[in-house]
Design a protein that fits this description.
The protein is mostly helical. The protein has helices spanning 11-20, 23-37, 39-53, 60-64.
């Protein structure tokens, strides 16, 4: 049997913790947060991966020039 542990964490505490993260950690955390809270974000990733597998891609140069 597991018992839930409730903790009060303010947004300010989370923001300060994120600010203290190294850039790579922060980027990974933000991506995880978006994935955990946005079904649309996950769907867009699945769609992008499917497009890539099926060859529906454009080069960086074609999209952005240079």
């Amino acid at each position: 049997m597991t018992t839930a542990l409730k903790m009060e964490v303010t947004s300010e505490v989370v923001i300060e913790a994120v600010k203290k993260m190294k850039k790579e950690e922060r980027n990974a955390f933000l991506e995880d947060l978006m994935a955990a809270t946005s079904p649309e974000y996950l769907q867009s990733i699945r769609e992008a991966r499917r497009n890539y597998r099926e060859g529906r891609v454009r080069s960086h140069a074609k999209v952005f020039g240079r």
